[in-house]
Amino acid sequence: GPEIGQCCGGRVRLMLKELDDKGKAELIAEEAKRLIGLPEVLILGAGHVGRALAYAFAPLPVRAKLIDSRAEELARAPNGTEKICTPLPEAELRKASAGAAYIVATHEHSLDFLLTQEALARTDAAYVGMIGSKTKRAKFESWAVGGTGALMCPMAAAHKGDRRPEVIAAFVVAEVLMALTKAHSKELADE
Hints:
single chain; 191 residues; alpha/beta; Rossmann fold; 45% helix
């Protein structure tokens, strides 16, 4: 830093090492262990918004899972994304870790309603969001069993105008990261 006129210091040293099979296995196991410790973000629906969310979450310190029953839509998701093809996405909701975030953006309103109800039933969710409008939220509230106060719908409500999937994803990612940070801060305070 100082040699090039930057006020922040520090140096980086790179070391390249060729790994044998044992070293590769150890590195893979270490990475798997690191991923397990990250907060889960379940993206339910691999359509245009779900895929944009998968791209947006990819470089962030979360374990994003893109879940859909349509293999052809999951195949269009970015490489490196954890993809789960299942006819029962609610089962993935049930086995998610405590403090997970749930983003519901499927191809059917009825499926959105069922999955959102399932996510809201979890009392340990850091975030529950459903794609839609104020009208969709009102319809969901008239249908839902139990409270819907924790539901973010419409998601990215602070944003007006540009409805491109990538723009929606950017705002939703910000909402989710704020919720995860808040939930993590609360955990630390409770310890």
